[in-house]
Amino acid sequence: MKKIPNHVVVIPDGNRRWARSQGLKPWLGHTYSIENTKAIFEEALRMGIPCFSFWASSRDNLTKRTKAEVSLLLNSFKKEFTRLAKDEQIHKNKVKINILGDWRKQFPVEVKKPMEKAIEVTKKYNKFNLNLLIAYSGIEESIQALRAISKEGISQITPQVIKNYLYTKDLPAVDYLIRTGGEPHMSSGFMMWDIADAQMYFSDKLWPEFTINDFRKAIKEYEIRGRRFGK
């Protein structure tokens, strides 16, 4: 029987570099990224992966990039979450949509509205989870968790207490992290608590050129690895 990971997370690096290689404005790489993300998530559904997480934007993407790039990202989020709320595959497969990060603090109302709608119309689903990390920083997630624990006056700190105050409190630990872009490193403390025991897979391909077959290859790699958890 195949050992399919329960929770896969993707860091889709390389959108801007890919756009430049095609002679395009760097921020246009995000447009091509969206179509690729749809295809990869549909494949994850076909493979029966219960929990799929995708880092859609960091906090820096929205605070340090040009106005043109930020505008494109915001318009893309508005369009895609409007689509997701009505998407036949989402409802047919009972996919619960979760959006993690500081987007509620940073985004204008017209962008937040369709995002909230997608969360609302899928909140009772429990077969699959699609988790989008948006305006996300793992460092900020940890800081906010520690502040909340301190404010509550909790003195007995356990792993479960920490987990309860993270954005990911309702999600399982990450089994498998896939990062594209040819730079094998973590960024901004990405999901630092949840990837503690995760297997990692690094691809030299830039995200817009990471195909369904590449995703299948990555999952196949997981299937043949062993996880010993220190034993």
Please characterize this protein's 3D structure.
With 231 residues, the protein is of the alpha/beta class. Helices cover 47% and strands 13% of the residues. Strands 3-4-2-1-5-6 form a 6-stranded parallel beta sheet. Helix 4 (67-86) runs parallel beside helix 7 (109-122).
Range of strand content: 5-15%
Major β-sheet annotation: 6 strands, parallel
Estimated helix fraction: 40-55%
CATH topology-level fold name: Undecaprenyl pyrophosphate synthetase
Q: What is this entry, summarized?
A:
This protein has 231 residues and is an alpha/beta fold. It is 47% helix and 13% strand. It has a single domain (7-136, 173-224), classed as Decaprenyl diphosphate synthase-like (Undecaprenyl pyrophosphate synthetase, 3-Layer(aba) Sandwich).
Give the key terms.
six-stranded parallel sheet; globular; alpha/beta; 231 residues; 10 helices; Undecaprenyl pyrophosphate synthetase
Topology readout:
Blueprint: E1 7-11, H1 15-21, H2 29-47, E2 51-55, H3 59-63, H4 67-86, H5 88-92, E3 95-100, H6 103-106, H7 109-122, E4 128-133, H8 138-152, H9 159-164, E5 176-179, E6 199-202, H10 212-224
Parallel strand pairs: 1-2, 1-5, 2-4, 3-4, 5-6
Helix pairs in contact: 1-2, 4-7
